[in-house]
Design a protein that fits this description.
The chain is of the alpha+beta class. It is built from eleven helices and nine strands.
Length: 305
């Protein structure tokens, strides 16, 4: 074999090894970046507690909003929301899936064969969430039970201890979505796709329908693309108006990707897609701020502002 060919082979081998190592290193870095809660990742939501940000995708966040705010609507304690979120995280990763172990389906992997309802009913997130809390309500002293015990009493899972791993994340999201932790839930979302935009009337109608689905028949008033939601009926008593307002405000942020919401105003704070951290509101147009227990939610629209 010619000497120059023998020399090229080690050189080619070295180049190949370097290339493989570079690809492998890049893959490891990307994987670590995805695991690092502080890395910049587009389209994600977070609830922060004790300095720790617990992230969910917009789709997971949308389902978490329903699961948690249902406890507010039913007058259940925040502990119920923690249990509900931990259960759905374990059962479906907070996604409304149409498959699972045997005939298990939906957010809570409920089984038609076990009397949870029909396939169509269970695949309705509102129905499945209501069914879960109907079961939890029957568990004596569930607020004092460990998450695993309370969830297992409803679910009868083959892996009851698995719910515990989601407790810290669920507690952070439950505290924010029940209004007990204010300004702790944010979403980094891309601008609304212009191809999906509809008229102001359609956008507002869609938001109002979602409010009624998740929160009930709350008083609403529309002004252009902005809908003011009166959360006072959720409060039960005036001192709780602030907490109820924040529950609705952070619900609106958590579900913003699905509802094309671009801005949420509560008290003297504002969240927007352009500035996704809760910040002190700047009165630029002279519009009054929402009153106690009120939340102004603005949607994207094809119409000019």
């Amino acid at each position: 074999m010619p000497r120059d060919r023998r020399r090229r082979r080690p050189l080619r081998l070295a180049v190949t090894v370097v290339a493989v190592l570079a690809v492998a290193t890049t893959g490891v870095v990307l994987a670590l970046n995805r695991l690092d809660d502080h890395s910049p990742v587009a389209e994600r939501c977070a609830a922060t507690a004790d300095g720790q940000a617990w992230h969910l995708s917009p789709a997971q966040s949308d389902n978490a909003a329903l699961i948690a705010v249902t406890t507010v609507r039913r007058g259940m304690p925040a502990r119920a929301a923690t249990i509900g979120l931990a259960t759905a995280l374990q059962e479906s990763r907070l996604l409304n899936i149409d498959y699972g172990d045997r005939d298990s389906i939906g957010l809570f992997q409920q089984r038609p064969s076990q009397g949870w309802g029909t396939i169509g009913q269970i695949m309705d997130p509102v129905y499945s969430t209501t069914a879960f809390y109907d079961g939890l309500d029957k568990v004596d002293g569930y607020t004092d039970l460990p998450v695993t015990v309370a969830a297992q009493a409803v679910q009868r899972s083959g892996f009851p201890d698995a719910y515990a791993q989601h407790e810290s994340r669920s507690r952070a999201w439950a505290s924010a979505l029940t209004g007990n932790s204010q300004g702790t839930l944010t979403c980094d979302l891309a601008p609304v796709d212009p191809a999906t935009l509809v008229s102001t009337e359609e956008s507002v109608s869609g938001l109002e329908a979602r409010v009624q689905r998740d929160l009930g028949d709350l008083p609403l008033s529309a002004d252009g693309a902005a809908v003011t939601v009166d959360a006072l009926p959720l409060a039960g008593n005036p001192p709780e108006a602030d907490r109820a307002g924040w529950a609705v405000a952070q619900w609106a942020v958590a579900s913003a990707d699905a509802t094309d919401v671009v801005q949420v105003d509560v008290g003297d704070r504002t969240w927007s897609r352009e500035s996704p951290e809760w910040a002190a509101a700047e009165a630029t147009d002279g519009s009054p701020r929402p009153g106690p227990g009120q939340v102004r939610v603005t949607v994207a629209t094809t119409d000019e502002p």
